[in-house]
Protein backbone atom coordinates (compact mmCIF):
# COMPACT_ATOMS: atom_id res chain seq x y z
CA UNK A 1 0.00 0.00 0.00
CA UNK A 2 1.49 3.35 -1.12
CA UNK A 3 2.10 5.92 1.64
CA UNK A 4 1.34 9.57 0.88
CA UNK A 5 2.32 12.44 3.20
CA UNK A 6 -0.24 15.31 3.06
CA UNK A 7 0.97 18.72 4.30
CA UNK A 8 -1.58 21.48 4.99
CA UNK A 9 -2.40 23.75 7.94
CA UNK A 10 -6.17 23.76 7.27
CA UNK A 11 -8.04 20.86 8.85
CA UNK A 12 -10.79 20.76 6.20
CA UNK A 13 -8.19 20.33 3.42
CA UNK A 14 -6.41 17.58 5.36
CA UNK A 15 -9.70 15.80 5.98
CA UNK A 16 -10.72 15.98 2.30
CA UNK A 17 -7.44 14.54 0.99
CA UNK A 18 -7.29 11.94 3.78
CA UNK A 19 -10.77 10.59 2.95
CA UNK A 20 -10.24 10.76 -0.82
CA UNK A 21 -6.88 8.99 -0.84
CA UNK A 22 -7.71 6.34 1.75
CA UNK A 23 -10.90 5.61 -0.17
CA UNK A 24 -8.74 4.72 -3.21
CA UNK A 25 -6.29 2.43 -1.45
CA UNK A 26 -3.56 4.82 -0.24
CA UNK A 27 -2.20 5.06 3.28
CA UNK A 28 -2.23 8.71 4.41
CA UNK A 29 -0.07 10.55 6.97
CA UNK A 30 -0.66 14.21 7.87
CA UNK A 31 1.55 17.21 8.72
CA UNK A 32 0.50 20.81 9.57
CA UNK A 33 3.63 22.61 8.24
CA UNK A 34 6.87 22.05 6.33
CA UNK A 35 9.07 21.44 9.39
CA UNK A 36 6.71 18.74 10.69
CA UNK A 37 6.63 17.16 7.21
CA UNK A 38 10.45 16.90 7.00
CA UNK A 39 10.58 15.33 10.45
CA UNK A 40 7.93 12.73 9.62
CA UNK A 41 9.37 11.97 6.19
CA UNK A 42 12.83 11.27 7.58
CA UNK A 43 11.35 9.00 10.28
CA UNK A 44 9.06 7.08 7.83
CA UNK A 45 9.84 7.65 4.17
CA UNK A 46 6.64 8.18 2.12
CA UNK A 47 6.03 7.29 -1.53
CA UNK A 48 4.80 10.81 -2.31
CA UNK A 49 4.24 14.18 -0.63
CA UNK A 50 1.33 16.51 -1.44
CA UNK A 51 1.89 19.97 0.03
CA UNK A 52 0.16 23.32 0.31
CA UNK A 53 2.33 26.46 -0.08
CA UNK A 54 1.07 29.05 2.41
CA UNK A 55 1.71 27.53 5.88
CA UNK A 56 3.17 28.65 9.24
CA UNK A 57 6.70 27.73 10.51
CA UNK A 58 7.89 26.54 7.05
CA UNK A 59 5.99 27.20 3.82
CA UNK A 60 5.68 24.86 0.85
CA UNK A 61 8.43 26.49 -1.24
CA UNK A 62 10.96 26.10 1.60
CA UNK A 63 9.81 22.52 2.15
CA UNK A 64 10.30 21.69 -1.55
CA UNK A 65 13.79 23.27 -1.55
CA UNK A 66 14.84 21.17 1.46
CA UNK A 67 13.12 18.07 0.04
CA UNK A 68 14.99 18.19 -3.28
CA UNK A 69 18.39 18.77 -1.63
CA UNK A 70 17.99 15.91 0.84
CA UNK A 71 19.64 12.70 -0.41
CA UNK A 72 17.01 10.57 1.37
CA UNK A 73 13.97 12.42 0.04
CA UNK A 74 14.81 14.02 -3.33
CA UNK A 75 13.73 11.01 -5.40
CA UNK A 76 10.27 10.95 -3.79
CA UNK A 77 7.63 12.72 -5.98
CA UNK A 78 6.70 16.19 -4.64
CA UNK A 79 3.31 17.66 -5.62
CA UNK A 80 2.06 21.16 -4.86
CA UNK A 81 -1.72 21.42 -4.23
CA UNK A 82 -2.59 25.09 -3.61
CA UNK A 83 -5.42 27.59 -3.83
CA UNK A 84 -3.31 30.62 -2.85
CA UNK A 85 -0.40 30.68 -5.29
CA UNK A 86 -2.12 30.40 -8.65
CA UNK A 87 -0.03 32.74 -10.83
CA UNK A 88 1.92 31.06 -13.71
CA UNK A 89 5.12 32.54 -12.18
CA UNK A 90 4.30 30.68 -8.95
CA UNK A 91 4.00 27.43 -10.88
CA UNK A 92 7.34 28.08 -12.64
CA UNK A 93 9.04 28.75 -9.30
CA UNK A 94 7.62 25.50 -7.91
CA UNK A 95 8.95 23.51 -10.86
CA UNK A 96 12.34 25.27 -10.64
CA UNK A 97 12.53 24.16 -6.99
CA UNK A 98 12.10 20.57 -8.19
CA UNK A 99 8.34 19.98 -7.75
CA UNK A 100 7.06 17.12 -9.89
CA UNK A 101 3.57 18.58 -10.38
CA UNK A 102 1.65 21.78 -9.61
CA UNK A 103 -2.12 21.37 -9.06
CA UNK A 104 -4.44 24.32 -8.38
CA UNK A 105 -7.39 23.92 -6.01
CA UNK A 106 -10.10 23.06 -6.56
CA UNK A 107 -9.54 20.16 -8.95
CA UNK A 108 -12.03 17.41 -9.70
CA UNK A 109 -11.25 14.33 -7.52
CA UNK A 110 -10.93 12.06 -10.56
CA UNK A 111 -8.40 14.40 -12.19
CA UNK A 112 -6.42 14.72 -8.92
CA UNK A 113 -6.28 10.93 -8.50
CA UNK A 114 -5.26 10.48 -12.15
CA UNK A 115 -2.29 12.83 -11.82
CA UNK A 116 -1.19 11.31 -8.49
CA UNK A 117 -1.46 7.79 -9.90
CA UNK A 118 0.49 8.78 -13.02
CA UNK A 119 3.42 10.14 -10.97
CA UNK A 120 3.56 7.02 -8.78
CA UNK A 121 3.40 4.74 -11.83
CA UNK A 122 6.29 6.55 -13.63
CA UNK A 123 8.43 6.38 -10.48
CA UNK A 124 7.64 2.66 -10.05
CA UNK A 125 8.61 1.97 -13.69
CA UNK A 126 11.84 3.94 -13.31
CA UNK A 127 10.76 6.70 -15.68
CA UNK A 128 11.55 10.41 -14.98
CA UNK A 129 8.83 11.81 -12.78
CA UNK A 130 9.41 15.51 -13.51
CA UNK A 131 9.72 17.02 -16.98
CA UNK A 132 11.90 19.89 -15.67
CA UNK A 133 15.27 19.68 -13.90
CA UNK A 134 15.59 21.66 -10.65
CA UNK A 135 17.48 24.95 -10.91
CA UNK A 136 20.64 24.98 -8.81
CA UNK A 137 21.23 28.72 -8.94
CA UNK A 138 20.39 29.69 -5.36
CA UNK A 139 20.47 33.41 -6.12
CA UNK A 140 17.92 33.09 -8.92
CA UNK A 141 15.71 30.80 -6.84
CA UNK A 142 15.85 33.25 -3.94
CA UNK A 143 14.99 36.12 -6.26
CA UNK A 144 12.02 34.23 -7.73
CA UNK A 145 10.93 33.18 -4.24
CA UNK A 146 11.06 36.79 -3.04
CA UNK A 147 9.10 37.92 -6.11
CA UNK A 148 6.45 35.30 -5.36
CA UNK A 149 6.21 36.49 -1.78
CA UNK A 150 5.98 40.12 -2.95
CA UNK A 151 3.22 39.22 -5.43
CA UNK A 152 1.33 37.44 -2.69
CA UNK A 153 1.89 40.37 -0.32
CA UNK A 154 0.61 42.81 -2.95
CA UNK A 155 -2.48 40.69 -3.51
CA UNK A 156 -3.05 40.46 0.24
CA UNK A 157 -2.56 44.24 0.55
CA UNK A 158 -5.08 44.84 -2.25
CA UNK A 159 -7.56 42.49 -0.61
CA UNK A 160 -7.03 44.26 2.73
CA UNK A 161 -7.65 47.64 1.08
CA UNK A 162 -10.80 46.28 -0.57
CA UNK A 163 -11.91 44.75 2.72
CA UNK A 164 -11.19 48.07 4.48
CA UNK A 165 -13.23 49.99 1.89
CA UNK A 166 -16.07 47.47 2.27
CA UNK A 167 -15.86 47.82 6.05
CA UNK A 168 -16.04 51.61 5.80
CA UNK A 169 -19.09 51.31 3.55
CA UNK A 170 -20.67 48.88 6.00
CA UNK A 171 -20.02 51.32 8.86
CA UNK A 172 -21.60 54.13 6.84
CA UNK A 173 -24.55 51.92 5.94
CA UNK A 174 -24.90 50.83 9.56
CA UNK A 175 -24.88 54.46 10.69
CA UNK A 176 -27.51 55.32 8.06
CA UNK A 177 -29.61 52.30 9.05
CA UNK A 178 -29.39 53.20 12.75
CA UNK A 179 -30.44 56.75 11.93
CA UNK A 180 -33.30 55.47 9.77
CA UNK A 181 -34.32 53.10 12.55
CA UNK A 182 -34.40 55.93 15.07
CA UNK A 183 -36.45 58.06 12.67
CA UNK A 184 -38.70 55.09 11.89
CA UNK A 185 -39.21 54.39 15.60
CA UNK A 186 -40.08 58.04 16.21
CA UNK A 187 -42.42 57.97 13.21
CA UNK A 188 -44.26 54.85 14.34
CA UNK A 189 -44.47 56.04 17.93
CA UNK A 190 -46.05 59.25 16.61
CA UNK A 191 -48.50 57.15 14.59
CA UNK A 192 -49.24 54.97 17.61
CA UNK A 193 -49.94 58.03 19.76
CA UNK A 194 -52.11 59.78 17.15
CA UNK A 195 -54.77 57.05 16.81
CA UNK A 196 -57.48 55.77 19.13
CA UNK A 197 -56.12 52.23 19.54
CA UNK A 198 -54.53 51.31 22.87
CA UNK A 199 -51.13 49.91 21.79
CA UNK A 200 -48.58 47.98 23.86
CA UNK A 201 -45.47 45.82 23.36
CA UNK A 202 -43.77 43.12 25.44
CA UNK A 203 -40.35 41.47 25.44
CA UNK A 204 -39.17 37.85 25.54
CA UNK A 205 -39.72 37.92 29.34
CA UNK A 206 -43.49 38.33 28.76
CA UNK A 207 -43.42 41.71 30.57
CA UNK A 208 -44.95 44.70 28.84
CA UNK A 209 -42.37 47.40 28.12
CA UNK A 210 -44.34 50.06 26.20
CA UNK A 211 -47.80 51.67 26.27
CA UNK A 212 -48.84 54.46 23.91
CA UNK A 213 -50.44 57.72 24.98
CA UNK A 214 -54.05 56.67 24.18
CA UNK A 215 -53.60 53.74 26.62
CA UNK A 216 -52.28 56.03 29.37
CA UNK A 217 -55.08 58.53 28.69
CA UNK A 218 -57.68 55.74 28.78
CA UNK A 219 -56.50 54.34 32.12
CA UNK A 220 -55.44 57.68 33.63
CA UNK A 221 -52.24 56.06 34.91
CA UNK A 222 -48.55 56.84 34.37
CA UNK A 223 -46.27 54.75 32.15
CA UNK A 224 -44.22 53.65 35.16
CA UNK A 225 -47.30 52.19 36.89
CA UNK A 226 -48.39 50.29 33.75
CA UNK A 227 -45.00 48.75 32.85
CA UNK A 228 -44.19 45.06 33.56
CA UNK A 229 -47.37 43.58 35.11
CA UNK A 230 -48.69 46.85 36.52
CA UNK A 231 -51.37 47.10 33.82
CA UNK A 232 -53.07 44.00 35.26
CA UNK A 233 -54.23 46.14 38.21
CA UNK A 234 -56.79 47.72 35.85
CA UNK A 235 -58.26 44.42 34.58
CA UNK A 236 -61.62 43.47 36.13
CA UNK A 237 -61.12 40.73 38.78
CA UNK A 238 -63.62 38.46 37.03
CA UNK A 239 -61.68 38.72 33.73
CA UNK A 240 -58.11 38.64 35.12
CA UNK A 241 -57.45 34.89 35.05
CA UNK A 242 -58.85 34.34 31.54
CA UNK A 243 -56.92 37.34 30.18
CA UNK A 244 -53.57 36.19 31.58
CA UNK A 245 -54.05 32.54 30.52
CA UNK A 246 -54.98 33.55 26.95
CA UNK A 247 -51.86 35.72 26.68
CA UNK A 248 -49.50 33.07 28.12
CA UNK A 249 -50.91 30.24 25.96
CA UNK A 250 -50.33 32.31 22.82
CA UNK A 251 -46.90 33.46 24.04
CA UNK A 252 -45.55 29.93 24.53
CA UNK A 253 -46.88 28.89 21.11
CA UNK A 254 -45.79 32.15 19.38
CA UNK A 255 -49.38 32.44 18.09
CA UNK A 256 -51.73 35.30 17.37
CA UNK A 257 -54.55 35.71 19.88
CA UNK A 258 -57.64 37.75 20.64
CA UNK A 259 -59.60 38.22 23.85
CA UNK A 260 -62.14 40.52 25.49
CA UNK A 261 -62.01 41.88 29.02
CA UNK A 262 -63.05 44.85 31.13
CA UNK A 263 -60.41 47.52 31.77
CA UNK A 264 -60.67 50.26 34.40
CA UNK A 265 -61.26 53.65 32.74
CA UNK A 266 -59.92 56.96 33.99
CA UNK A 267 -63.50 57.95 34.97
CA UNK A 268 -63.56 55.13 37.52
CA UNK A 269 -65.81 52.74 35.58
CA UNK A 270 -64.95 49.56 33.69
CA UNK A 271 -65.17 49.52 29.91
CA UNK A 272 -65.04 46.49 27.59
CA UNK A 273 -61.99 46.24 25.30
CA UNK A 274 -61.09 43.83 22.48
CA UNK A 275 -57.37 42.93 22.66
CA UNK A 276 -55.48 41.40 19.71
CA UNK A 277 -51.81 40.35 20.01
CA UNK A 278 -49.21 39.27 17.44
CA UNK A 279 -45.69 37.83 17.92
CA UNK A 280 -42.76 40.04 16.86
CA UNK A 281 -39.59 38.89 15.08
CA UNK A 282 -36.43 40.75 14.13
CA UNK A 283 -34.73 40.75 10.72
CA UNK A 284 -32.99 37.43 11.50
CA UNK A 285 -36.27 35.77 12.39
CA UNK A 286 -35.59 35.73 16.16
CA UNK A 287 -38.61 36.09 18.45
CA UNK A 288 -38.45 39.41 20.36
CA UNK A 289 -41.83 39.57 22.09
CA UNK A 290 -45.40 40.65 21.29
CA UNK A 291 -47.22 43.73 20.03
CA UNK A 292 -50.90 44.22 20.68
CA UNK A 293 -53.69 46.75 20.52
CA UNK A 294 -57.03 47.20 22.29
CA UNK A 295 -60.25 48.79 21.01
CA UNK A 296 -63.10 50.07 23.18
CA UNK A 297 -66.11 47.82 22.43
CA UNK A 298 -68.40 48.94 25.26
CA UNK A 299 -71.05 50.24 22.84
CA UNK A 300 -70.98 46.96 20.94
CA UNK A 301 -71.42 45.00 24.17
CA UNK A 302 -74.45 47.12 25.09
CA UNK A 303 -75.93 46.53 21.65
CA UNK A 304 -75.43 42.78 22.12
CA UNK A 305 -77.27 42.93 25.42
CA UNK A 306 -80.15 44.81 23.78
CA UNK A 307 -80.17 42.27 20.98
CA UNK A 308 -80.41 39.50 23.56
CA UNK A 309 -83.41 41.20 25.14
CA UNK A 310 -85.02 41.53 21.70
CA UNK A 311 -84.51 37.83 21.08
CA UNK A 312 -86.16 37.05 24.43
CA UNK A 313 -89.15 39.20 23.48
CA UNK A 314 -89.31 37.44 20.12
CA UNK A 315 -89.38 34.07 21.88
CA UNK A 316 -92.25 35.30 24.04
CA UNK A 317 -94.20 36.41 20.96
CA UNK A 318 -93.54 33.07 19.29
CA UNK A 319 -94.96 31.34 22.36
CA UNK A 320 -98.10 33.46 22.17
CA UNK A 321 -98.41 32.71 18.46
CA UNK A 322 -98.15 28.99 19.16
CA UNK A 323 -100.86 29.18 21.81
CA UNK A 324 -103.10 31.12 19.41
CA UNK A 325 -102.51 28.54 16.74
CA UNK A 326 -103.52 25.73 19.07
CA UNK A 327 -106.65 27.64 20.12
CA UNK A 328 -107.60 28.13 16.48
CA UNK A 329 -107.10 24.44 15.76
CA UNK A 330 -109.39 23.62 18.68
CA UNK A 331 -112.08 25.95 17.33
CA UNK A 332 -111.80 24.42 13.88
CA UNK A 333 -112.10 20.94 15.37
CA UNK A 334 -115.22 21.97 17.32
CA UNK A 335 -116.69 23.36 14.12
CA UNK A 336 -116.10 20.05 12.35
CA UNK A 337 -117.88 18.19 15.14
CA UNK A 338 -120.82 20.59 14.96
CA UNK A 339 -121.06 20.20 11.21
CA UNK A 340 -120.99 16.42 11.56
CA UNK A 341 -123.86 16.52 14.02
CA UNK A 342 -125.84 18.73 11.66
CA UNK A 343 -125.32 16.30 8.82
CA UNK A 344 -126.53 13.43 10.99
CA UNK A 345 -129.60 15.41 11.93
CA UNK A 346 -130.37 16.19 8.29
CA UNK A 347 -130.13 12.51 7.39
CA UNK A 348 -132.57 11.61 10.09
CA UNK A 349 -134.97 14.32 8.87
CA UNK A 350 -134.77 13.08 5.28
CA UNK A 351 -135.67 9.57 6.39
CA UNK A 352 -138.72 10.86 8.22
CA UNK A 353 -139.70 13.60 5.73
CA UNK A 354 -142.59 11.64 4.32
CA UNK A 355 -144.08 10.83 7.67
CA UNK A 356 -143.38 13.98 9.65
CA UNK A 357 -143.70 17.04 7.45
CA UNK A 358 -144.65 19.22 10.32
CA UNK A 359 -141.61 18.13 12.32
CA UNK A 360 -139.40 18.85 9.27
CA UNK A 361 -140.65 22.42 9.08
CA UNK A 362 -139.94 22.86 12.74
CA UNK A 363 -136.46 21.35 12.31
CA UNK A 364 -135.80 23.66 9.35
CA UNK A 365 -136.60 26.67 11.48
CA UNK A 366 -134.29 25.36 14.18
CA UNK A 367 -131.56 24.77 11.63
CA UNK A 368 -131.87 28.35 10.31
CA UNK A 369 -131.58 29.62 13.85
CA UNK A 370 -128.53 27.42 14.40
CA UNK A 371 -126.90 28.80 11.23
CA UNK A 372 -127.45 32.33 12.42
CA UNK A 373 -125.92 31.43 15.73
CA UNK A 374 -122.97 29.92 13.90
CA UNK A 375 -122.54 33.10 11.87
CA UNK A 376 -122.54 35.21 15.00
CA UNK A 377 -120.12 32.76 16.58
CA UNK A 378 -117.74 32.92 13.58
CA UNK A 379 -117.88 36.71 13.58
CA UNK A 380 -117.11 36.84 17.30
CA UNK A 381 -114.43 34.19 16.97
CA UNK A 382 -112.63 36.04 14.15
CA UNK A 383 -112.57 39.20 16.24
CA UNK A 384 -111.00 37.37 19.22
CA UNK A 385 -108.35 35.73 17.02
CA UNK A 386 -107.53 38.89 15.06
CA UNK A 387 -106.53 40.81 18.20
CA UNK A 388 -103.49 38.65 19.22
CA UNK A 389 -102.74 37.93 15.55
CA UNK A 390 -102.44 41.64 14.77
CA UNK A 391 -99.99 41.95 17.67
CA UNK A 392 -97.93 39.08 16.26
CA UNK A 393 -97.86 40.63 12.79
CA UNK A 394 -97.06 44.07 14.16
CA UNK A 395 -94.15 42.97 16.32
CA UNK A 396 -92.74 40.73 13.57
CA UNK A 397 -92.85 43.66 11.11
CA UNK A 398 -91.09 45.88 13.67
CA UNK A 399 -88.40 43.24 14.12
CA UNK A 400 -87.91 42.97 10.36
CA UNK A 401 -87.17 46.70 10.25
CA UNK A 402 -84.20 46.19 12.55
CA UNK A 403 -81.01 46.66 10.49
CA UNK A 404 -78.82 44.87 13.04
CA UNK A 405 -80.44 41.45 12.45
CA UNK A 406 -78.35 38.86 10.61
CA UNK A 407 -79.74 36.81 7.74
CA UNK A 408 -80.07 33.83 10.07
CA UNK A 409 -82.11 35.88 12.57
CA UNK A 410 -84.34 37.40 9.89
CA UNK A 411 -85.37 34.06 8.37
CA UNK A 412 -87.51 32.75 11.32
CA UNK A 413 -89.10 36.20 11.79
CA UNK A 414 -90.10 36.29 8.10
CA UNK A 415 -91.63 32.81 8.49
CA UNK A 416 -93.66 34.03 11.51
CA UNK A 417 -94.84 37.06 9.55
CA UNK A 418 -95.88 35.00 6.51
CA UNK A 419 -97.62 32.40 8.71
CA UNK A 420 -99.52 35.16 10.52
CA UNK A 421 -100.63 36.71 7.24
CA UNK A 422 -101.75 33.28 6.03
CA UNK A 423 -103.71 32.75 9.25
CA UNK A 424 -105.36 36.15 8.76
CA UNK A 425 -106.33 35.09 5.25
CA UNK A 426 -107.87 31.86 6.65
CA UNK A 427 -109.97 33.89 9.14
CA UNK A 428 -111.12 36.20 6.36
CA UNK A 429 -112.05 33.14 4.29
CA UNK A 430 -114.14 31.79 7.21
CA UNK A 431 -115.98 35.11 7.37
CA UNK A 432 -116.52 34.94 3.64
CA UNK A 433 -118.12 31.53 4.09
CA UNK A 434 -120.52 33.04 6.63
CA UNK A 435 -121.43 35.67 4.10
CA UNK A 436 -122.17 32.96 1.56
CA UNK A 437 -124.69 31.42 3.93
CA UNK A 438 -126.22 34.82 4.52
CA UNK A 439 -126.45 35.46 0.79
CA UNK A 440 -124.30 38.60 1.06
CA UNK A 441 -121.19 37.42 -0.78
CA UNK A 442 -120.21 38.67 -4.24
CA UNK A 443 -117.43 36.91 -6.15
CA UNK A 444 -114.90 38.94 -8.14
CA UNK A 445 -112.46 37.14 -10.45
CA UNK A 446 -108.82 38.30 -10.02
CA UNK A 447 -105.45 37.07 -11.28
CA UNK A 448 -102.88 35.77 -8.79
CA UNK A 449 -99.35 34.27 -8.89
CA UNK A 450 -99.71 30.52 -8.38
CA UNK A 451 -95.90 30.08 -8.13
CA UNK A 452 -95.64 32.51 -5.21
CA UNK A 453 -98.66 30.98 -3.46
CA UNK A 454 -97.15 27.47 -3.67
CA UNK A 455 -93.81 28.76 -2.34
CA UNK A 456 -95.60 30.28 0.66
CA UNK A 457 -97.42 26.97 1.29
CA UNK A 458 -94.08 25.14 1.10
CA UNK A 459 -92.45 27.51 3.66
CA UNK A 460 -95.42 27.16 6.06
CA UNK A 461 -95.44 23.37 5.97
CA UNK A 462 -91.63 22.94 5.83
CA UNK A 463 -91.16 24.03 9.46
CA UNK A 464 -93.58 21.32 10.65
CA UNK A 465 -92.27 18.63 8.31
CA UNK A 466 -88.62 19.32 9.20
CA UNK A 467 -89.38 19.03 12.93
CA UNK A 468 -90.93 15.59 12.27
CA UNK A 469 -88.10 14.62 9.89
CA UNK A 470 -90.50 14.38 6.91
CA UNK A 471 -89.61 15.34 3.35
CA UNK A 472 -91.90 17.95 1.79
CA UNK A 473 -91.13 19.36 -1.69
CA UNK A 474 -93.09 21.48 -4.17
CA UNK A 475 -92.05 20.83 -7.76
CA UNK A 476 -92.90 23.05 -10.72
CA UNK A 477 -93.24 21.86 -14.31
CA UNK A 478 -91.78 24.02 -17.05
In the predicted model, the low-confidence regions spanning at least 5 consecutive residues are none
How many DSSP-defined strands? 10
User: For the report, how would you describe the main beta sheet?
Assistant: 5 strands, parallel
- Strand arrangement in the largest pleated sheet: 2-1-3-4-5
Order of helices and strands: EHEHEHEHEHHEEHHHEEEHHHH
- Count every helix, treating DSSP H or I runs of 4 or more residues as helices: 13
Structure report:
- By secondary structure, this protein is of the alpha/beta class.
- The protein has four domains: 3-136, 3-Layer(aba) Sandwich (Rossmann fold), CATH 3.40.50.2300; 195-296, Beta-Lactamase, CATH 3.30.450.20; 303-443, Helix Hairpins (Orthogonal Bundle); 444-478, no CATH class.
- The protein has 13 helices and ten strands.
- It has helices at 11-22, 34-43, 60-69, 88-96, 109-124, 138-194, 213-219, 223-226, 237-253, 298-351, 357-400, 407-438, 450-467, and strands at 3-7, 27-31, 48-51, 78-82, 101-104, 198-202, 208-211, 257-264, 270-281, 287-296.
- The strands form two sheets. A five-stranded parallel beta sheet has the order 2-1-3-4-5, sandwiched between helices. Strands 7-6-10-9-8 form a five-stranded antiparallel beta sheet, with helices on both faces.
- α2 (34-43) packs parallel to α3 (60-69), α10 packs antiparallel against α11 and α11 packs antiparallel against α12 (407-438).
- The radius of gyration is 52 Å and the shape is elongated.
Amino acid sequence: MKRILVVDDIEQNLYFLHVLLEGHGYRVEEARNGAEAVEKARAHTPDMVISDILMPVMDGFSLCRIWKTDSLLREIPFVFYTATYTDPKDERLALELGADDFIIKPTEPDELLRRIGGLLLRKEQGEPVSTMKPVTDDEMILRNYNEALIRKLEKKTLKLEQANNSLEKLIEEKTSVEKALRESELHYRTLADSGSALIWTSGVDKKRDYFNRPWLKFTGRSLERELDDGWLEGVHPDDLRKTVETYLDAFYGRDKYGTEYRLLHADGGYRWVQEDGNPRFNGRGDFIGYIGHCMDITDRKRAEEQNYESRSEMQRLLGEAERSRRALLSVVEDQKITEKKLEDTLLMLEERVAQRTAELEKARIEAVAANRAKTRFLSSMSHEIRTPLNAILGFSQLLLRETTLSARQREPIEIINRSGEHLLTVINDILEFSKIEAGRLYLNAAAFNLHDMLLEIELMFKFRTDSKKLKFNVEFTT
